[in-house]
Write a structure and sequence with these properties.
The structure is a homodimer. The first copy, chain A, is α+β, with helices and mostly antiparallel strands. Chain A has 2 domains: about 5-205 and about 335-420, 3-Layer(aba) Sandwich (Aminopeptidase); about 205-330, Alpha-Beta Plaits (2-Layer Sandwich). Helices cover about 35% and strands about 20% of the residues of chain A. Chain A contains 11 helices and 17 strands. The first copy, chain A, has helices at about 5-15, 20-30, 40-50, 135-150, 175-180, 230-250, 295-315, 315-320, 340-355, 370-375, 400-420, and strands at about 55-60, 85-90, 95-100, 125, 125-130, 160-165, 190, 200-205, 205-215, 265-270, 280-290, 325, 330, 335, 360-365, 380-385, 400. In chain A, a hairpin with a 2-residue loop joins strand 4 and strand 5. The longest helix of chain A has 21 residues, at about 230-250. The first copy, chain A, is elongated. Chain A starts with a helix and ends with a helix. The interface between A and B is large, with 68 and 68 residues.
């Protein structure tokens, strides 16, 4: 069978089975799988995986993971938060591949900004709405449609296909770290995070941090007797804005040329004070700093530390009360795949074949678990998926259903070329 | 008996009964009478008042108060939060006086900034430490020592002395409003809030407000796709800083000449965002705006509203998403007493007599319940007390015990002259 025929077959199988994907996605979205609540959504996947005759491995990460240098999580255990891996064994002598998606979603945020229930899975105008549609249950459905298409069309691959549905991607990668510690490796990996069908050979790293800015309390009516931690926070925020400019001015990689801020510093949470007419004596700010694909995590940390040190020159208050810095919670290791890597070539050509146009190749504006797979597992990773970044973590998150099917088709064809087919 | 003799008698009575005051203050401080928890501290007072043979009135405010135009509280009821008033009837034909203190204290804030338990009532170096010592349980103890001294020395006044221990001063004055609605009026009033023994014929008003600043959520890695409510908050804060400057530049009252910011705008609480790597879609800021003694509350409100309107010129974002403004929680009406009022003269001369020095006369840097007594009750009010403003609402709040006794002596002598004594 020539490639052209595979495409025709796969394309028609997917066309005929769109409902399978839509139903699965809706079931996944209706399960609010925020951190610690992943269990039910994973069970939805398991019952689907069983129909595909894969070797299913469901387990809670733990044990040695807590002391691993790459471990990063606020959690003390992962009870009732299982990882799921399902392997489709190849017939032999083919290259293996990991297809990795995460089941956890970020919280829905301010409900009043959502038009509907964030977990409705409502379909309208070719889109499905809901938290997690784009980031990244839609991508996971693309993977499973690709696997199912090959199975039902009787296309047997030489290499192993290792499907992974991991926890904790949004908060440090303990799920994917757990798959590596359990021995899951492969010759390459694809992660269908929401790239809007752009191909991302670069993966930005990132880390979470917590700043503690001290003031001195006083009665609001004599606020000049105190020191407002809220006012001091403005100085801190402005210094971090400067740091972001300096760090981004250095990024010359052409893959970032369409990205307004390649490696952003995002301040996501602010909280301080406890009485309207008292001077706030403490403010905490939690945020994330982007790490360039070729940058060491340490280097980004040191630059942020230096920025906080610079504050002492701007305002002597910070000499007396240095800003507290805590690297907590989530961390995503950066990564990069050689643009000449064979998987890049295959994915590129399958995209052209299906879409009849050139793919856009860019660098990822956010971290994924791909950095861990590459840095710790030595596995080259491409991020390529159906959702759109702009919608991830947003109210009224949605995904265009058609993109899920296109990505499924491209990935199925990529698997054929990468893993090989016995003739 | 001539005045000189009253002073000698009162001075020695207080010297001999310092322990009475210290014990009472410590008992009051050890009861953490933050909003809704005032009951136990009021019971401490009641058992003390019983020994002084006063007519005691203990009641929970309610009924019509909730629809009164001056009512201002977040509370839906005041169950278990009684007001206490105790009247010492005069023998007749004298001027009456209200002696008003509040039993509520502001929360203790960040515990790590306190050297000891905030409710220890620890005594060291002539000071008692604890939340509420200075604001204003110390002042209340001065009042009760003055009343007890007169009683035990057999000095009978012509006019009524109406002692009040009210709730809710820190959050809108519903306690003092309740005393007015219950019919308590007098020819004048003294409130021993912490003036550091300065005499305050002016009372700053103030109001609480809540600002809601909208952003638009996005993934932190593509934060340029969202709008950070935290960044927008900086613009809002800076605009309010400008407004504070403009409003204070207008204050020419010489009584404010030693006050760096006569009518401050204090931003006490900030809160926004719910995920470190998401763009914050909403920030709320809660604060208080000072109202000049001769200013209408409405005028201050309108100026703040105009400032928020000005934001639309600075950043078009605010045209699309105007900052929400909510006048909530506490409100203190401003007030002013004529400096030629006879009570001013009496207090002035009694201060000189006891302290052998001139009193400082200034304008209050914060609101008190005095504004309500004046505006609604038509009662001229002087604020004069033993604590220090700088320490109010602070960690490690304390009061110099000696000041409590000095104020008690000055007030006892003032009562004699104001209410009159039958010869």
């Amino acid at each position: 069978m020539i490639n052209k025929d595979y495409q025709t077959q796969i394309n028609s199988w997917i066309k005929e089975n769109k409902v399978v994907g839509i139903e699965l996605l809706q079931k996944l979205v209706r399960n609010r799988s925020i951190q610690t609540k992943e269990y039910d959504a994973q069970q939805v996947l398991i019952s689907h995986l069983k129909k595909l005759n894969l070797e299913i491995d469901e387990w809670e990460v733990g044990g040695d993971i807590f002391t691993h240098p790459y471990f990063c999580s606020t959690r003390k255990n992962f009870l009732k938060s299982p990882n799921v891996v399902a392997v489709k064994r190849g017939s032999g002598n083919g290259k293996s591949i990991i297809l990795n998606g995460h089941i956890d979603v970020v919280p829905e945020g301010d409900l009043t900004q959502w038009t509907d229930d964030p977990y409705s899975g409502k379909i309208e105008g070719g889109k499905m709405y809901g938290r997690g549609t784009t980031d990244m249950k839609g991508g996971t459905v693309s993977l499973l449609l690709a696997i199912q298409a090959l199975k039902e069309l009787g296309i047997e691959l030489n290499g192993d296909v290792i499907f992974q549905s991991v926890i904790e991607e949004e908060s440090g990668g303990a799920g994917t770290l757990g798959t590596l510690l359990r021995g899951y490796k492969a010759d390459a990996a694809i992660i269908p995070e929401p790239t809007n069908m752009k191909i991302f050979p670069r993966q930005q790293g990132s880390m979470w941090f917590r700043l503690t800015i001290k003031g001195r309390s006083a009665h609001g009516g004599t606020r000049y007797e105190g020191v407002s931690a809220i006012e001091k926070s403005i100085t801190v925020i402005q210094e971090l804005q400067k740091l972001e400019k300096v760090r981004n001015a250095r990024i010359v990689d052409p893959l970032y040329q369409n990205t307004p801020i390649p490696i952003p510093i995002n301040l996501g949470i602010i909280k301080g004070g406890d009485w309207p007419s008292s001077v706030a004596d403490e403010v905490t700010i939690e945020g994330r700093i982007g790490v360039a694909p070729d940058e060491e995590m340490n280097h980004a940390q040191e630059e942020l530390e230096q920025s906080l040190k610079n504050l002492e020159e701007i305002d002597p208050w910070f000499k007396k009360q240095p800003v507290g810095l805590d690297w907590f919670g989530a961390r995503w290791v950066p990564g990069t795949i050689n643009e000449e890597h064979p998987l890049m070539g295959i994915l590129h050509s399958k995209f052209q074949q299906v879409k009849q146009t050139e793919p856009m190749i860019e660098a990822s504006p956010w971290g994924t678990d791909g950095g861990l797979l590459e840095k710790l597992g030595g596995i080259p990773v491409i991020v390529f998926g159906p959702g759109t970044t702009e919608i991830a973590h947003f109210p009224n998150e949605y995904i265009e259903l058609e993109k899920i099917f296109e990505v499924a088709e491209i990935i199925a064809l990529t698997l054929i070329d990468w893993c090989g087919v016995s003739s």
